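Notes from the pairing session

We agreed to fold both candidates in a single pass and log them together. This is the raw record for the first candidate, unedited. Please don't reformat it; downstream parsing expects exactly this layout.

Candidate A
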Amino acid sequence: MNSPAPSPGNMTSSTQKGCLARMKDALTLNCRQVLNLMVFFGFMFNYMLRVNLTIAIVEMVAKSNATAAAVVDNSTAAMERVVDEDGRTWFAWDAHKQNLILGSFFWGYLMTELPGGRLAEVVGARKVLGVSMLVSSLLTLITPAAANLSYLALVALRAVIGFLLGVTWPAMLPMAAHWIPPADRSKFMSNMMASSLGAAITMPVCGFLLSTWGWESTFYVTGGVALLWSALWFVLIFDSPAQHPRISMEERRFIEQALGDSVQASHKETLAVPWRQLLTSGPVWAIVLTHVASIYGFFTVVNQLPTFMKKVLHFNIKQNGLASSLPYLGKYLMALGTGVIADYLKSRNKISTTAIRKTFTTFAVGIPGLLMAVQVFAGNDQIASVAIFTLALTFNGAVTAGYLGNGLDIAPNFSGTIFGMANMLSSAGGFVSTLMVGSLTYQNDSYGQWQIIFGILSGVYVLGAVIYLFLGTGELQKWNSPRTPAEKEPESYPLRKNSA
């Protein structure tokens, strides 16, 4: 007996259900997409926690006219707090105290970059990065209370925040090593450049908060959004596909097959760092030294450009919102664009990983070096200087397709340690940059002295590009895997039976 044909109504209902199911699948993010989004916003909020005080301190310090009309609060140490007639709190901090407060962040930051990368390799980036942001968010929320207590309390608090946030960048590479297939790593690294986008956003947002609700609001808002991010991080992110309770079988299989045996499956057994091989590896030093050169140039441009523009060219770039934000926005867009191009070339096997890394590193570090050489001769013009520095920082964003994720290519098991070394030394380069500019311009802030600075900056950039051209590679190093795949223990996290 033939079964009755489905009625038009049933066919319509079935079609609608199928369409709804396909729409649901299209709108549902897979675990890698969620990780990309969380990293993007995480690095944006991370930067906000770093620079909120840099912006707020301008309004925290008492102005001379406000101090004259202020009621001094004798309950505070050294009478450093004043309250004006409108009830707003200010602080009578001199230049020495202000610099001490601003610099204290880096005391802690330098201490944890190398240990942070290694710790993420041992216990997992989920805990390291999550705890770092969570505690830093809570400390940011109590920053106004610390400032009202004493400037020394604020110094100590900022040093602890720096200590916590020092692990951020190095910890992300071990996470990428377990989650991101080689053909997608340049795009993933561009998410970390959201810190530059955060810089472009933080200044106007904090400026609005300062003018509307006072300096305290900058810490409450930035700390609050980072706290919310931290809670979501622990709910949504796990150290590997094998540990994720909600990943589909298809996605887990795709990731694990793409990664192969290049990275250990879990953190159950810690691989000892092969220090001798690592420290004598040319490819490792190519990453480290190029990173030092790149960040040295970045720190010099970002920290010293406003001084040069104001004192030599008589143009206050800090007051020009467009001029101060364009370099950061350009750097992020360049990072994203070159990341997409690099991953496309790798997925199509157009050129080798080594060629990709060398090409984009030369582009990202070499071109700013050439632009700094141009600045030596054309830097006495406001428009030319703004254009040159904007282009230099924009081109530098291509590091995400160059050396920045190169540790994942050569030694994914120890990528956190390698990046920790690079970031620690590059942060020290920031201090050297400050000392260089200070010594060359002491009592002689002329354009001639700045030409010397730009010449040195050009040489450092070009040297970094040349070092990477000679020593860099995209090949997996033998010392990445102390044991052969046959000696590895079987995966302890079974595939979910109900995944489809």
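Candidate B (folded immediately after A)
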Amino acid sequence: MTITAQQWTSLPSEFRRLGSSEHSQNQKRGRPLESFLEGPLFVPTLSLLFVVDILYGRIFSIDPNTTAWSLIIEYDGEPNGLAWNPITRTIIIADFKQGILSLDPQTKSLTTLVSCHHGERLKGPNDLIVTTDSTIFFTDQGMTGLHDPSGHVYRLDPDDLLDMILANGPSPNDLILNRDRSALFVAMTRDNSVWHIPFYPDGSVQRVDRVSSYFGIGGPDGMTLDEEGNVFVAHSTPGTGTINLTWGGEDSNVLYIVESETGSILMVKWHCSGWLATRQSI
């Protein structure tokens, strides 16, 4: 079944800034870009969709009713993934340059939660999820790939205990929990696959396996899950620009899809609610 997404909104001209940055020099082969959008997050309690611009360290909010864009913060970082912490009511940021950060959307204050593990700097966080008890799972991708399969996946408990649960990932990207929190799915971009990480009851990792494989240049990037258990994967095939996706809308059944290089956001109305968005509405 093929469903065509509709153009919903795009980054306004006043926020487009053709140029280069540390991120574009290191990861986009020096190409001048106007922006590179990522990390969509819909927060029901705020009735706003948030996205990041990795290139220039910016986080925007979008009003779903008017599609009006607002710049929330611009800072010296490379924000990539966003997640909502329902307990602290803050936006948690996976920042490639700075680590795991917490942003208060009201005061705009930014706090560093994690920047290193056992005295060693993180490689470069990519994406994250937050559960209803404030546990944070995040990927530490850096510049890893098939040439250097040493990307990490971490779990940060509410008591600030940081545990590395995977140490051999070839470019770990987005990640999702299954509905009973017994397993984690991780997009391994350079392996062009999605890995399945099952947990023992004590939270330790069982045998990791590959549940889906793809072909061609690029690889899976963003992922999400609906309430029926269907997994959605955004594949970053060159030329498509599709990089990440999230659920939103009053019934959590609108799928927002980010086209990073064009600075556009597409939308699809789905027949059921997104499971993660429902969990985040607490």
